[in-house]
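Please, structure for the following, as tokens.
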Amino acid sequence: MSEESRTVSSASSSEDTGQRVDALVVGSGFGGAVTAARLAQAGFSVTVLERGRRWRAGDFPRSPQLHDGWLWNSDRGLYDVRWLDSMLSLQGAGWGGGSLVYANVFARPAPSLVDEQWPLGERRADLDPYYDLAGTMLEVSPVGADPATGRVPPRTSILEDLGQKMSIRPATIRPNLAVRFGTPNEWTPNSHNVHQRGCSFVGECVLGCNQGAKNSLDYNYLAVAEQNGARAITESEVVRIEPDDEGWTVWSREDNGAGLVRRTASRVFLAAGSVATTEMLLRSRDVDKTLPGLSPALGHGFSGNGDYLALSTVRQGTGDLTTGPTITTTTVLDVWEKSEPVWFQVQDGAVPPALTALLDRMLPLPRIRAWWRSRRRRDPRRTMALLSMGRDAGTGQLELDKQGEARLRWLNRWQARLYRAEGRVGPAVARIIGSPVRTPITWSIFRRPVTVHPLGGVPVGSDREKAVVGPDRQVHGYPGLYVMDGSVIPAATGANPSATILASAERAIEGIIRDVTGDRSWKAPEWTRVRRVPIPEDDAYRWMADRRRQTAGDGIYLDETMHERTERRAHAGRLQVRLEIPSLDSFRADPRHRLPVSGTLTLARLPGTHAVSGQLSMFPEGADYLMKYDLEFTDSHGDSWSVVGIKRQRGRGPIARYRGLTKVHLTARRAGEQSTDVSTTFVLHPRNVLANGRSITPIGFTAARRLKAYLAFARFFFRHVFGS
């Protein structure tokens, strides 16, 4: 590309369209599609330049041959895979940009993450209405039942069950997806009068949807742009941009590279994606010298959105894990890593058989790999991905190498806590599902992260020394040149960023149109039918934030069994409860050292077994007892009972303390009665003491944290038993 840009002045290799338009939009991804649609609706003459081809349902590659429509660099295929030296970046190429191959998730970042790094006007509260607008345009909804089975995909159930087993089920949600669910064999018009079919749950979303059920941008925003007069020029790769006397000149390579085409416009909107847009501006400043005044901040603030990939072939259970939309669940995690909280999320991912076949064809040593598979008996349809993303440092810097191509300065140690926490997901999941979790060779051997969500590189702000574009997205020093894509997102979103790019572009282009036209009331026509899009991820964010506060310092649980002391042992009662300390930090800070209790109670003088719940005060400060149970239950007649059990120390020294801890005086009283109904004594036999001790189970995300929690509780307990 850089070589082409140096030949622009050669008249013999160029063509001039001779027509100046109001706006040239470079790129048709999430930022470019919004920009083109809104400018066209506002009455501007618009041309959209897209380097890739126009892919239609049925055209997307499925061949196991790598050079059959897959790679941009080999035959102008679907995927542009960029090795940025310290990171691998993946993006789509075609009319619709990354929306052709993304996993459909429409998610908002946690409000707490959209902090001071984000410009005023770009934070959650400001963007929420525009998220609703974008969600309405894309007609998003969570995954439903597979029309072939009547059930949700098996991966959905596995991840939801996993959340249940990890005691974080409310943190696992089904996110909104830009997928058309409905009858798979019927073409019906969407809200933009473009015909689509319903999802057939083949799990090939990231390969391009041959079903026509993916709500990619060509079915909505770009369709709206063309319906309102925007002109689409596909297979047009921009190689040079420069200002002219009346606005801007853009040179692009077209006609399969046979020549260069010159186009002019009053305004140019760059939306080629974070890497490509930043690279284009770097070339303009440092190679072509057409934009020498660009900010020194150009290229700074790059983020991989904390992307982290792992794979597992699930041995337990049955079902085809390659079916369904690519992603169906999101699990929010908020864990402690080196005494600080780390927030990220994990999503399930389908691994399409076509992709497995393609990779199998690419990898070396086919005979050895076939022998290894026969030994391991790994079923490719039982393989699923675990896709993590979080808040990385966002301190990468894009620059040009000697060939004029983008490379990235990136240090893994700056995101060490995030990567370490994401890496612990695999062992935690493997322990529960009984199947190993592995990372790709790019990380396991080369320690190079892979991102499908590149962000940043074009900082936003009022100071030209620290920012490339102003709050209005206009490049400092170059009126009429705007940047509208993920390169202006100031930090990792910690969630799939497409919704944020859409919402941010919606807000920005609305302001630009109002400024240019002078019509301060202009707004997108679709506002009249915008619906409030549910935000299931916010419920998960809130629940996990509360859980982190409630589980600071990790915790433990243990089971306690005591027997009633009576003359007729055969009819003796039993108290069997679970004691749980969700947060050792909160437990130790509480002067009464309270913890929740639940279990069952039987009494010799009261028929039946009763489910009890309540709390235990363990070694409360200033109290004249060692422990106190405050429990409740409802009997078979529907009467409510309160139960108080107290352990007291009689005498001095550790022996007296031990005896006090193994005997509880219990009183049960029916609600509304002043007289005592039942008064008895429960004891712990030596075998119960041993069993109770063995049942102590620490709660923590890693083995080291579980050990730390166990030792912290042991110190607390034995200090109060033997310390005085």
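The longest helix spans residues 498-517. The radius of gyration is 31 Å.
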